[in-house]
Structure formats: C-alpha cells, structure tokens
Amino acid sequence: MSMVGLYVPPRSRRAVLHRLSAGTKLSVLLLAVAAVVASANAYVAVAAAAVAALLHPLCGLGVRPALRTLRALAPFLAVIVLFQWLAGDWTAAVRVCGQLMAAALLATMVTASTRVSEMLDLFERLARPLARLGADPRRVSLVLAMTIRCIPMVASAWRTSREAYLARGLRGRPDAMVVPVIVGLLRSADALGEALTARGID
Amino acid sequence: MTLRLEGVSHAYDGRAVLRDVDLELSEHRIGVIGANGSGKSTLARTLNGLVLPDSGRVLLDGLNTRRHAREIRRRVGFVFSDASAQIVMPTVAEDVAIGLRRSGLSADEQRARVDAVLERHGLAGHRDHPAHLLSGGQRQMLALASVLVTRPEVLVCDEPTTLLDLRNTAVIEETLRALPQQVVLLTHHLDALTAFDRVLVMDEGRVVFDGAPAEAIAYYTALMRPDADTGHTASGGPRPDAAGAQPDPGAEAGPRASGGGLRP
C-alpha cells in the first residue's frame, strides 16, 4: 500500500477522529508532538508512543496503519539505536526513538482519518493570506495534491524501468535505471499536466 | 453543438502532423480512425484547446480555442487513452470531485453530483478506494466519470479502449454509446464505429475520407494493407481499390516513405 492509500474510511461508531476537522486534528498533533519533544523525558516519550499506538484501534482505525508506520520507521530507529549505543547513551536512544514513534504514530492517525481533499481545503484556507502577495491559494493546494499524486507515479516509473532492466537480462548497476526513470517521469508529468488542463484544473 | 476547423495546420519540431484541415463537426456520433502518427490525437487535442494550431482556427459555436480556451474546455470534455495519467487525487470520489472545485456549486451539490456519477458508472462501491489501485477498466471508467461529472456538452475520447481487454472495451463503448452528449471517438476498434453517424479517416495529417462508417472502414482497411502505396494517388484522386471512397478533394499525395514501415 502506498502512502496515498493511507486513508481509512470510517467503518464504526468509534471513528471519532473522522468527525473532527482537519484543522483541529493538525493543531492537536502539533501541540502533542511539541509537548513530547519539549519534555525531553524518555518515560514520557515511550508512554506517548504507547498511547498513540493504542489510540489507533480505539479510534476505529485498526492496527494496520500503526504497524505500517512502525515498519517504515524501523530502519531509522535502528540507525539511531546503533549511533546512541556507540555513544554509550541508552537513555537518549530510548528518548529519541520514543519521540519519533509517538510523532509518526500521531501523524498517521491524522492521515488515516482525513481525506486529502479536506487537507487541501485546509491548506487552501491557510494559504489565503498569500493572495495579497499575488499567489493563488488554489494553486498552492493543487501543488500539494500533485506532490501526493506523484508518489505512486515515481514508484510506478521505478518498477517499470526495473522490470525492463531485468527482462533484458541485465544485473547490477542500478544507476543504469536513473535515466529511463527520469525520462518516464517527465513523460508522465507531461501527460498529467495535459490531463489537468483538459479537466480545467490548471 | 458545432465544432469547426478552418485551415488547421500544426507541426511538432518541423514535422507536420496536421495539414490544412477544414471540418465542421455537428453530428451526434463522430468516429476518427487512422494509423499511428496520422494526426488523429493532435486533431482531437485541437478540439478543446489542448493544442493551439500553428495556423488556422478551431471554433466551438463561434468561440475560438485561442481566446476562449477555459470556456471551451468546460464544454468539451477529453478522455485520454491512459487513464492513469488522468488521475489527480488519491481516492476515487476525490478524483471525480476535483473537477468541480471551481464550479461554484455548494459542497452538498458537489457531493450529490459525485455520488450520482459514481453510481451511474458502477463505481459507488469504490468511493474511498485508492484510484491508482483500480483495475484498468475501472480506471478508464473513473476517467470517464471524472469528465462527465462536469457535464460537458461534447466528449472527445482519444483511444479510450486501447489499453483494455475485450470485456472492458465493450463496457466503455456501451457507456459512450448511451451518453446524451455529442461524442468524437478516436479508436482502432473499428467495430465500435458501425452505428456512428460519421467517420473520418486520417492519413499524413489530412482527412482523406469523410463519410458513412461502412465506407470509411473499407477505405481505411484498404489503406492499411501492407502493400498499400499511399492513401491517394499522385494526382490526388481516389484509391482505385477503395469501393465507394470519397477522398478529400483537397488532398495531395502524401510523402509516406514506405507502405510497410512503422510510423513515428
């Protein structure tokens, strides 16, 4: 499942987060993460991560989004633990890993319970003051939508190039795929731009 | 609704893809066929201002694509062959809805329209599914729904079934047949055109045949034979073996390099 498939439709009465506005959820996320980091306490960080993990099933999101997030985070946590082990500071390792897990799990709760379109509406509202400087708030939100849209596009271009590379019996030298991936992405970007124009979203 | 092309010519990097095309398109169902590189897609893209011709002009009920592109794109929907390229938003319902963001409709009206179009095209059960994870047929149906939600008066479809299997091809073609809108369909599936009002055959950037489906398909089939020389004789006359063919009177001998080679 790619990042763009993180939204979990509300399926039970416990889906309280889905009923909150994107702005409320983002504000609470910001405050919670700031409090955990500001406390600079390993116990608080671990407790916050545990609470964030527990809130997933309690809010009707299931455990999958949490597990997916922790799996994606695992390599970074491993590097941090290794670094802190070499530095001989286990408390710092626990604190930093706890803070990272808490932040990522809380952010996942927001992502899993908020449609991208709601998030775009919020960013469009937040970007309104930029209109005084000549920026178009709708375009700001469109850029964000395009950024999210491009995640599966990049993955698809990489997969296609890799399959073509392997199908031709080539091995090693993954750098040889860089040019075809870039060319593929440029073509996809052209096609997407044309589609946006055709749909009147330019 | 009348689309009019007047002396339309266009070239990419010096390679002519449309050559002095004059057309008036007012029929309900219009098919366009031709080999790869014959200029079909460029012709289609001129109809809603995606391509502005190097010379000549394209008019929709008097509105020029050069000056009224936004208004024309609102009225002329466009469906691409690769539906993936048309998907903008992560989920099915969001992708359909984004076309209405500038419509001026209230949130409730937008939701009602999206729900109705998803229901009509069999996508209601996929409302919150990631759009890029749909099957090829569902993706093309989503692309179609995303355009139809804006209620265009004309629909231009550039080979919408090229990447689909036979079943999905039949579903998309049936959907297009049932639409109340005027449809301009570019396709290599000749069977889809038998009930159309008018079919254009394109070759070398020109409309070389313009008429009823049966005659147009016969003309095109003869034109595409590997031993075919060119779609028209050096004097611009009709192909001797294309029964009933009515060539474009303005057509000149095209510079096709060889009958059997791949086209750019």
Question: Can you offer a commentary on this structure?
Answer:
The complex is a heterodimer of chains A (202) and B (264). Chain A is an all-alpha fold and 202 residues long. Chain A has 2 domains: 3-114, no CATH class; 128-198, no CATH class. Helix content of chain A is 74%, strand content 0%. Chain A contains 8 helices and no strands. Chain B has 264 residues and is of the alpha/beta class. Chain B has a single domain, classed as Rossmann fold, CATH 3.40.50.300. Chain B has helices spanning 40-47, 69-75, 92-98, 107-120, 136-148, 166-178, 213-223, and strands spanning 3-12, 15-25, 29-34, 55-60, 63-64, 76-79, 154-158, 182-186, 198-203, 206-211. Chain B has a 6-stranded mixed sheet, with helices on both faces. A 4-stranded antiparallel sheet of chain B has the order 2-1-4-5, with helices on one face. Classes of the chains: A mainly alpha (202), B alpha/beta (264). Chain A: It is a multi-pass membrane protein. Chain A: Keywords: Membrane, Transmembrane, Transmembrane helix. Chain A: This is Cobalt transporter.
